[in-house]
Write a structure and sequence with these properties.
alpha/beta; Rossmann fold; 3 domains; six-stranded parallel beta sheet; six-stranded mixed beta sheet; about 45% helix; elongated
Length: about 325
């Protein structure tokens, strides 16, 4: 039998009318009571779709932002800070506020999305990452067309608002550039393969090698569990234990920082290293890091623009924006 408001009320030890008031976000209900009711709804897997529909016209002028990081890692990777700045600039310009939360994994993200939707705390949601078979995107698509936008390329983009770089082309251009400089033994260190951004950049790397008739060396390809300096360091050490490449491309500056550290420890001076994101610290590495500027702030700005346009029923000419990238060339022995 389907779960009802009475079942939720019984578990939360409140009246059915109190549950209804919590769902409608009645300001007279205490936060403690709201918490009990939402916990009961979550435990019973109860979602008040009919009531949510009746509240569809209620605007909070607030956007929900889901950050795929723990609280410890949130401010380590500058990409998220830069993207949040862009989101905030456009949102403030249009009179919107930002409510953000961070998560440890995809399951937690879905729970936060459910809370956002059924509490009516936000008018729309911004996701800052895209995974293979992304459950967050699928859930939002199935949630009665709840407005959302994704920073990243969805696998199936029909009916989805999204903003991204052309990550395949960006990496292809980097590897092509290095090959034209005379490099042939080019290693690749990326983040998790479950992320579309990693797969797109790896595909660009592989295609550039193929176009130039260079054989792929699987021992030069490393994909790590996250975008951190320590993972870049560990991957570079393993590569160097096998063979010294002439160049290394990475999918994130933090990974590149770790690669540079390993190269310095080995006292090697002739390996070209290229990162992605063009973070402020890239210029202060030894040697200075060449990096692809993905314009993270612009990604966030246009994500907010798409979502707010949708919320305000603007005539949106496109469901996505592709943001140009730029190779920022520095010393890294290119």
């Amino acid at each position: 039998m389907p779960v009802t408001i009475k079942d939720v009320a019984k578990l939360a030890k409140v009246s059915p009318s109190t549950v209804s008031r919590v769902i409608s976000d009645n300001p007279k209900i205490s936060n403690e009571t709201k918490k009990k009711v939402f916990e009961a709804m979550k435990k019973l897997n109860y979602y008040p779709n009919a009531i949510a529909r009746s509240l569809a016209n209620k605007s909070t002028k607030t956007l929900g932002l889901i950050l795929p990081n723990t609280e410890e890692d949130l401010f380590i990777n500058p990409f998220f800070i830069q993207a949040m700045r862009g989101i905030s600039v456009y949102a403030q310009k249009k009179g919107y506020y930002i409510m953000y939360t961070y998560s440890n994994n995809e399951k937690e993200e879905i729970n936060f999305i459910k809370n956002y939707i059924y509490s009516k705390w936000v008018d729309g949601i911004i996701l800052l990452t895209v995974r293979e078979n992304d459950k967050c995107i699928e859930y939002l698509k199935d949630s009665e067309k709840y407005p959302f936008v994704v920073v990243g390329r969805p696998e199936k983009s029909d009916g989805i608002l999204w903003v991204d770089n052309d990550n395949f082309k960006a990496m292809y251009d980097v590897v092509n550039y290095l090959i034209n400089k005379g490099h042939r033994d080019i290693a690749f260190i990326g983040g998790p393969h479950t992320l579309n951004v990693t797969r797109d950049r790896l595909d660009g790397y592989l295609r550039a090698l193929k176009v130039h008739g260079i054989s792929v060396n699987e021992k030069f390809i490393y994909e790590q569990v996250d975008f951190t300096e320590i993972k870049g360091y560990e991957a570079m050490m393993e590569i160097l234990d096998y063979k010294e490449p002439s160049a290394v491309v990475t999918t994130d500056d933090l990974i590149a920082f770790g690669a540079l550290k390993a190269i310095r420890e080995k006292a090697i001076n002739k390996i070209a290293v290229v990162g992605f994101n063009n973070t402020p610290l890239a210029e202060y590495q030894q040697p200075k890091l060449t990096s692809v500027d993905i314009k993270a702030e612009k990604l966030g700005y246009y994500a907010a623009k798409l979502l707010i346009g949708k919320l305000e029923n603007k005539n949106i000419e496109t469901n996505h924006y592709i943001i140009d990238t730029e190779l920022i060339e520095r010393e890294s022995t290119l």
